[in-house]
Design a protein that fits this description.
Layout lengths: L12 H12 L7 H14 L3 E5 L2 H11 L7 E4 L6 H8 L3 E4 L11 H13 L6 E5 L8 H11 L2 E5 L7 E3 L5 E3 L8 E5 L12 E5 L2 H11 L3 E2 L8 H4 L12 E2 L10 H11 L2 H18 L6 E2 L14 E5 L1 H4 L3 H10 L27 H9 E4 L7 H14 L2
Helix pairs in contact: 1-9, 2-9, 3-4, 3-7, 5-6, 10-14, 12-14
């Protein structure tokens, strides 16, 4: 019996050829394939600048550095996300505050965020940054957060690790791609194997700000400056005739080795060519689940806001386990026995021991309610119609 995991990478002969070509080139890292990949992501997202790095967590960390988040600053994050969305603030010594989700779309509630912004402003410690998360591939309420940013003057980091290729329509009928909207200061993507495209591991930060892009590039490579126009110690950097000393470089800040290799970038560039087709397939899978499980008691699915093109990194079913008389563990184990892999995305971050007691439970009621019912079903482009039927049949059996 074939096992159907909740997510799976899709590697083609073209991907393999692209990686082999990189392996045969003069550069395995810090070579031209990086810029090619960055430019391809700019073209895909509509962003002005793109900075590749080693993974999505590194991308979030670099964004926090560029945002100049410092010890004692406050950063707002939703509870329903992978821990990296919050950890990037803690890496900088900042305090993490959790704003509850909108139970319809499972993205951060602008109203819950506003309450925190107003409270912090009243306390004389305004919020430095807000990290929104496009949960499962659904963009957050972009216009609402743009208005909050204008009013409260925070740095907006959009965690779009689930949503590359998604889009949304504003109230003027203008359609925006994720990464294109200029009000989001930096948008972060992940290229982990279960994401829409993969580099094996990889990340990217897009921005419309040249200053942010320069800062991101500096800190992804040890804080080292190698371009003449950025040198501080000009006496050491330049020869008497004004030429740059060929050996010279400067470490100007405490940076990290967060570089992506040319091998990974070549794979990412190849994968990116199939992004649009893959999202259509994911949307088809999600629609099939909704249709085939519509009459099944105890199962529902999150809403898709008007004007949103959902990227469906995940298809999350919301199951009333209590009403069904079956626990989540029983359902997952039953599905596993039938060759179906599932997962829970996510345990609320404030429930993690590291973040315990950082927020009162009644402040994240919607997040806790979502968590009690969440179960991610298999969703990846290679799924066949027969695979979808197998999942749906196994779900009915598990909840019988």
């Amino acid at each position: 019996m074939k096992f159907i995991p909740y997510g799976r990478q899709n590697i083609t002969a073209e991907d393999i050829a692209a990686v082999v070509e990189a392996l045969k080139s003069d550069f395995l890292t810090q070579g031209p394939a990086i810029e090619v990949f960055e430019q391809a992501v700019c073209a895909e997202t509509g962003a002005q600048y793109a900075v590749a790095c080693s993974n999505g967590t590194a991308a979030l960390h670099l964004a926090a550095i560029a945002a100049q988040i410092e010890p004692g600053d406050r950063v707002v994050v939703p509870p329903i996300t992978f821990v990296a969305s919050a950890n990037c603030a803690r890496y900088r010594g900042a305090e993490v505050l959790f704003a509850d989700i909108d139970p319809a779309t499972i993205t951060m509630s602008p109203l819950a965020c506003r309450k925190i912004l107003e409270r912090c402003a009243a306390e004389g410690r305004p919020v430095k940054a807000v990290v929104t998360v496009d949960m499962a591939g659904h963009p957050c309420d972009m216009q609402a957060f743009a208005l909050l940013k204008k009013e409260f003057n925070f740095v907006w980091i959009q965690d779009a690790c689930h949503s590359i290729g998604s889009s949304w329509e504003d109230n003027l009928g203008i359609r925006w791609k994720t990464g294109e909207f200029p009000e989001a200061d930096m948008t972060v993507f992940s290229f982990h194997p279960v994401k829409h495209i993969t580099c094996g591991e990889g990340g990217m930060i897009t921005t419309h700000s040249e200053a942010f892009a320069k800062n991101l590039r500096l800190h992804r490579s040890h804080g080292i400056m190698r371009t003449a126009d950025g040198f501080s110690n000009r006496e050491e950097a330049f020869a008497p005739d004004g030429s740059v000393n060929p050996w010279y470089y400067e470490m100007q800040s405490l940076g990290f080795n967060y570089r992506l290799t040319d091998i990974q970038a070549a794979l990412g560039t190849s994968q990116l060519q199939r992004l649009a087709a893959g999202i259509v397939q994911r949307q088809t899978i999600a629609a099939a689940y909704r249709s085939r499980l519509a009459s099944q008691p105890f199962i529902s699915f999150p809403a898709v806001a008007d004007g949103v093109s959902h990227a469906y990194h995940l298809v999350v079913a919301q199951i009333d386990f209590m009403a069904s008389g079956r626990s989540r563990a029983e359902v997952m184990n039953s599905l596993k026995a039938d060759g179906i892999g599932t997962q829970v995305h996510y345990i609320p971050v404030p429930m993690m021991p590291y973040y315990a007691c950082s927020v009162a439970s009644d402040e994240i009621n919607a997040s806790l309610a979502y968590y009690r019912q969440a179960l991610s079903l298999p969703c990846f482009p290679q799924m066949s119609d027969e695979d979808i039927d197998r999942v749906c049949d196994a779900m009915r059996k598990a909840l019988a």
